[in-house]
Each structure stands twice: as structure tokens, then as C-alpha cells.
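Chapter review: from sequence to fold.
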Amino acid sequence: MQDFSDSMEAAGPEGNGRSDTVDSAAADCPSPHSGSNSAAASTVLVEVRPGVAVAFGEVPAELIAELKLDPVDLGLVSVDDRVRISAALASIGNTATVGGNFANAFASVEGVYRVGDATRAFLSAGGTLAVKDGANLGAVFANGRIVHQARWIPVTAVSAAGVAAAIGPALAMVALQMMLSQVAGLVRTNIALTSEVLTTMRHGQWAELTALVDTVDRAVGRARELGSVTTTEWEKVAAKEDTLRKQRETYRLNVGEHVRQLGWLDTHGRRQYLDTNAKAIIFDAHALLSSLKAWTGYQTLHAARARAAGREEADEARLVEIIERETGEELSSALAETTSLVDSLARELRIIAELPGRVPLIGKRKDAKKARLTSAQLLEAIQPLADALHPPVPPLEAPDVVCAPKSLDLERYLRILRWFLKDGETLRVLGLDAPARIGAILDGAKEKVAPAVDKGAARNLVAVTDRRIITARTNAFLGQGEIGQEIPIDRVRYVRAPAARDGSGRSVIDLITSEDNIRWHFDSDTDNTHVAALAAVLAESMNIPDDEQAQLRRPRHASPEAGTKGESAGMRSVEPSGSEAPTGDAV
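The C-alpha cell string follows.
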């Protein structure tokens, strides 16, 4: 999508789908296509705070779906404040839309929407959405005619105009409504708190918390219906402030302790901690979100009372902004910890779901007398919240470089590896090394036992991403979902690849990091160009002086006698060259 504060020339159904831009936000509105309707409805979206957009004019469902806008209930934003927002923002909008179909767009606030980070980044970059019915973004077509036009005004334009300060308290009320809508949406994910999770002790905790949540929910609902917070309703809720704060802090501390424990434990320790505390994690995460919803509702009611009093007293008006700032900080911190915790548990459950047998995460399988939660049941309970807090990574596809026998079933490795990758991390190489054959070093009298020993030799998975190198014993990886070592890519110091295969016909790569010297062998039927490409990928990150790295990147044609000191005959430096295999003769 192109930044709507810039000019857009709407292309017709046969148009090329691109929009020309100008620097000024005061550029004329797009001229309709010759087959369009000059009276097409208009929408102006003004980003008043990062991630918060106020809509003027009709907002069609197509536009909401295209931009992934999340509607926010205006709730306790008073009619007077809506008028103030309209008047203040009209000074920007009318300047930018004189003479176009947007001239009357600022008559009233039609809605408030939460704009996701991805959409905001897209809009800010001046991108274009997928062409819809042959038309570029900024116009909605039906039967070859423009029936709707839209314009986006970014938060930078609002700040530059200086209107945000004039309507700060009103915008603070909008922001509080957005926070309340956000946390309420998370609670609605409806985690299944089963009887196993709600033990006798937790039943009492849950009953106390839900009673508080219901009290605040009813007060917020009545305030919305009346358009104000009455003294009676406020006094009832205000009396619960200490209890609400205690509930919020209790579960925030519980979640924080889970996060800290998982943060300093190693892989095996994290698995054990999650084994023991899975039920507590599910309960504490849901309880924290419920307490946050109640606390945010309370703060919204408090702000609405202060906003009403602020018409007569300036300090009360400023208090609204303070409440919004503090509530935002509290909510952001708590959601960050909750996301980290739920991510850890959900990832572990998803890995277990890919393992043979899908073993229980809690309790012993031989304990048949007592009902136990299995990993599948736990995942069913936590997954809606996990997906809402942090959309899962897409399934992994095999990378272009695969250093493994052609007969290898990559899919089972990729299904597990998917859950170890972080946001935005790209898998570049996947390999399976072939460890030294023990039979080759045994003398003739012992060669009879070699095949049995070789058969049990453990292979190693090698996965290289744009951030790190992940290794794992294949039996531990496929059987228990465990990885062995993670090496940040910036710790690569040197990479070598022998010019010829070893005595068993295998390709070899030597990797030197700041801590380890590692040698990988790859089966004789592994494509040697892929092995060379793996070495090239690693060599791109060699953290050595620039002059030495430049020397290594140049093709080498010298004879073995001319090799540098310390470089073995039959070995060569690796020349990374993008996606192509490195070239160069042995030195």
C-alpha cells in the first residue's frame, strides 16, 4: 500500500497497479478513472498514536480485511471528545484533500482501529498492496467503477501539525480503549482450564479472580451504556483497587519467576522445569491476562472520571494522560513476559507432538490410577493463547543446500527444527554428517565386529541459519527433540574444505570457531557441490581481519609447495561466491 498522505493516481481495471507519489501531504486527491463514480465514498485513516488509527467516513469491510485492521470499541470516549478529535484532525485532513472526494470526510469519527506492526511498517515504507480487481490501493472497485477511496495520514503528520497536544487527554482515552480491547481479546482465546489444572487450591484462586473481573466488566458495560461513569459505579469499583493490584502483582510475579527459571536453565533443565510446572504455567498465564483485563478496565473507568472532571480542572485532564502512560507501560511489560513464557511452553509441546509416540509431558505413563494431562491436551489448552500472543512460524521448507544422502527423509527433521527457529531466522543449509567408520581403523582380526559397531554410530544433524549453527545427535533430535550445540555465526573464524574426499570417499569440512575445532564428514553419495556451498556459506561469516578474508575469497591456483605455512597439502581455502559453489584448486 502506498502512503495515503501522498498523492495517488487511481488506475482503472486495466491499469498497471502503481501509484505516483509526491512529497507533500497536501497533494490533490486521486482523480477517478474515466469509468469511476466521482461520488465514490471516502475514508480517511489518521494514525494518532503508533498503532492507533482514527477513521473518518465509512470503512468498508474490504479495507479492514486488506489492511488487517482490528476494530476498537470507542466505549468511554465521550461524544464531546469525538467532536474535539474530529475538529483537530480536520485541520490536517482538509489541507491534504481540498478539491477531492475527501472534502467532507471529517464530519465525524466513525471508528478506531488497532494497526498491526506489519501493516504499519508496510504503510510507512510506501508499499503497495496486492492489486484488487485491477486497481491500485486507494480505490475500491466494483463493476469497473470506483466505489470507495481511502487515504492514510501517518502519525508523523499529526505530530508535525501539533494537534496531538491539543487533544492529548481525548487521545489518551482512545489509547486506553485500545488496551482494554487488546487484553480482552486475549482473554477471549478461552484457554481450557480443565479439572486437572484447577486443583482444589486453584479453584479458590480462580473464583476470587473471576469475581473481580466480573465486577469490573459490569461497571465498564454500564458506563458504556450510560455514556459516563456514575458515582455509584465508580465507588463500587474504586473500593476494589487494592485487591485488583494484588491480583495483578501476584500473577505477574508468578509469570516472571517462570520466565527467569527458564532463562538460566540449559536445554535439559528447561525440559524438566516444563515437565514439572506445565499446569502452573497455563494457570498463571491465563490468570495474569484476566487480572490485567480487570486492572485495565479499572484504569479506564478512573480515566473517564478524571476526563469528566478535567473540563473544569486542568490537572484532572492531565491525569488522564498519566493514567494512560502508566497503564501502557504495565500492560506492555506483563504481555512481554507472558509471551515469552507461553512461547517456551508451546514450543516444547509442539516439539513433543512431532516425536514418536507423543509421550505425556506430565507424570509417569505407568501411573494409570490418576488422570494425567498429556502433551496433546496441554497444547490444545495453550495453543489459542500462544497463537494470539505470537503467531507461529510457517512450516519449514528444505533449503537450497542439502548435504545429505538423496534418500534421506528431510520432512521429519524439518517438522521438529521449525520450532527451534526464531522470528525472521532463515534456514540456509541442512546437513547430516557421517561419523568416522570405526571398522576402517580395526585390523583384519577385528573387522568382523566392525559392521555392528558402524551401524550404531550416531550421526549429527547440521543446520546453518543466517544467525547460528545448530548441531544435534540425530537419535536425540528425532527421539527427544533435543539439540546439542548452538554456535553464533559471528564466532566462525576459519573454514577449510579438502580438495579431495577422504579414504572412505567422504567429503570433509573443517570449521574453526573461537572455542572449537569441528570436522564434519559427509556420505560419499552426498552432492559435493552442496558440501562446497555449505563451506561457502560458513566462510561468508569468517570473523578474521579484512586483508586475510580478502585473500581467502580470491581463487587459489598455486601448487602445494607454494602453500602458506600451516596449511596442509591437499587442503584448500574456501571461496564463498553467493549461491554458487566455491572454486579453486588445492594448495
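Two observations follow directly from the output. The mean pLDDT is 74. The chain has three domains: 41-166, 170-387, 401-573.
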